[in-house]
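Run folding on both entries below.
>entry_1
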Amino acid sequence: MTAQTLALTHPGRVERLVLVNSIGRMTYSRARGLLMAASTLVPFKLFVAANIRRAFGPGHPRDEVEKYIRASASTPREVVMTLYAAMRAFDVLDRAGEIRVPTLMVHGYHDVQLPVRQMLRLATGYQDAEIRVLDAGHELPLERPEGLTAVLDRFLARP
C-alpha cells in the first residue's frame, strides 16, 4: 500500500513496482466487517493469534506459526490497531491507471485476509501488470521465500 502511494505521489521516482499480497481498497463481506469490529473487544493476544493463524496458508508448520505469533504479540496494541485503521482507510483503486510503470503483483492463493480477487480487481487498472499467484497465504514471503525470490528475479531481469 505504501509502494502504491509512493508511485502515485512521486511517479518520477519509481521505475518498477512490486506488490506482494496488496490491494487497492479494503472490501469486506458483512461477516468479515462484524468480525473486525468484534476483534477490538477481545484480548489483544487473542486478536493477534487469531489473525496470524488465518494469515498462513494450509499446511504451514505449526511451530513456525506459533513463533510468529509470539513475535507479533510484542508489538504494542495501539500500533497494530492504528495500522488496521490505516488499511481500512486506504483506497487507490480508482487511481490505479495513473501508475504506468511495469508492476509485478504477487499474491498468495490462500490469502483470506486480502483475497486474490481483490488484487485482480486492482490489476485491471494497471497499464503494465504482471500477475503471479503462489501456493501460500497472506504471509507469502515467510511461506514461499524461494518462489517469491524466483518471481522477483525474473521480473527485475526484464529489459
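>entry_2
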Amino acid sequence: MPPAAARPVPNRKWRGWWLKQLHNWHWVSAAVSLVAMLIFSITGITLNHAGSIAAEPVVMNRTGQLSASLLPRTPAADTPLSPEVAAAVERAVGLDPAARPAEWSDSEVYVAMPRPGGDAWVSIDRATGRITAETTDRGWVSYLNDLHKGRNAGAAWFWFIDIFAAACILFTLTGLLLLQFHARRRPMTWPIVAAGLAIPIIIAVLFVH
C-alpha cells in the first residue's frame, strides 16, 4: 500500500472542474448585471427617500388642428386612432398616440400616454378637430425610479428586468456555492451568511407592522 502522502486525493479533479465552472458563471453573471445592479441599488435609495427629494414637474401644453377629412369616427370601445389620424396628431403636437387605447365619447377622443418619469395625453374634439395635448416631465430621478418599478416602461424593459433578475439570481447562487467551497478556510462565512438572513427577518417581524 502506498504511503498516505502518495495517495491521490479523491475528487480533486471534480472539485477543480466545479470551481472553474462556478467562477466562470459568477463573473459572467456579474458582468452582465453590474451596471443595472448599480442603477437599481441607487434607485432603491432614491425610492426610499422619495419624500425628501424635491422634484418640480415641468408641464407643456400644445394645440393643433385636424383636417375635416380626418375627424375621428366612432369605432368600438378602446380602439386606437387610425394610423392616418395618429400620424396627423404627431405632426401637429409632437406626440405619437399610435396603437394606444383611446377613450371615445360623443364629444372627444382621449388618449393617455403615461411614461417613465412623466405623463402625456392627447384629446381631439370630434366636432371641430381641435387637438389639445399636455406633457409632464418630473425629472431624471423620477424617470429612473419608474424604470426601477417597471412603471409604464413597455415590453422591452419588462423583459430586460426579467433577464436582469435571472442574472442576479445566477450571480447570488454561484456566489453561495463558492462560499461553500471556501468556507472551510474561512470560519466566519456561515455566521455572516446567517446574519444576512436573520437581520431582515428580525426587522420585518419586530418593526414592520
